[in-house]
UniProtKB/TrEMBL annotation:
Keywords: Endoplasmic reticulum, Heme, Iron, Metal-binding, Signal. Belongs to the cytochrome b5 family. MAPR subfamily. Residues 51-148 form the Cytochrome b5 heme-binding domain. It is found in: Endoplasmic reticulum. One of its GO terms (molecular function) is metal ion binding. Its main location: endoplasmic reticulum. The keyword Heme applies. PANTHER family: MEMBRANE-ASSOCIATED PROGESTERONE RECEPTOR COMPONENT-RELATED (PTHR10281), NEUDESIN (PTHR10281:SF72). The gene is Nenf. This is NENF protein. It comes from Calonectris borealis.
Length: 176
């Protein structure tokens, strides 16, 4: 029911009868329901997204049933599994729904520190930021996207230094 011609057009380049025999053998080995599931299965995970500040702000843990997102170094993590830390009324709720890189580096919940800006951070704060980024966020939470600021320069041109993070489930060729 809907779905087009199936795999036959792909096989046109093969010798006609050999292709039909191979196709019949393959399809005969699969029950119809399994064949449909293989052909029409949605992606296992949502694709990685680019978030503007207002879009990221929607995932601030205030609405029940909505994912909770936190950005560090321009990488947006789904911290929903840590709801007891990041959800509504939780101790680190101030960090979510925004890029809180400076706050993470300084271990600060001061509203003035809840920004992407790392200007003026000490060597020790920058090392702490890298440690927390790699050993907490990248190790525990899936990457769901990037802030537009990380991928684009202020003038809207592409940031040539952009490098996707090496998460096991993240495959750049499938995402962009």
């Amino acid at each position: 029911a809907g779905g087009g011609a199936g795999p036959q057009p792909v096989l046109r380049g093969m010798a006609g009868s050999a292709a039909r025999v191979l196709l019949a053998a393959l399809l005969g080995a699969l029950p119809a329901a399994a064949e449909r599931e293989l052909r029409f299965r949605p992606p296992a995970e949502d694709p990685v997204r680019l978030f503007t500040e207002p879009e990221l702000a929607r995932y601030d843990g205030q609405q029940e049933g909505q994912p909770i997102y936190l950005a560090v170094k321009g990488v947006v993590f789904d911290v929903t599994s840590g709801k007891e830390f990041y959800g509504k009324g939780a101790p680190y709720n101030a960090l979510v729904g925004k890029d809180s890189t400076r706050g993470v580096a300084k271990m600060s919940l001061d509203p003035a520190d809840l920004t992407h800006d790392i200007t003026g951070l000490t060597e020790e704060e920058l090392k702490s930021l890298d440690d927390i980024f790699n050993n907490v966020y990248k190790a525990k939470y899936p990457i769901v996207g990037y802030t537009s600021r990380r991928i684009l320069n202020e003038d809207g041109s592409p940031n040539l230094d952009f490098k996707p993070e090496d998460q096991p489930h993240f495959n750049i060729k499938d995402e962009f």
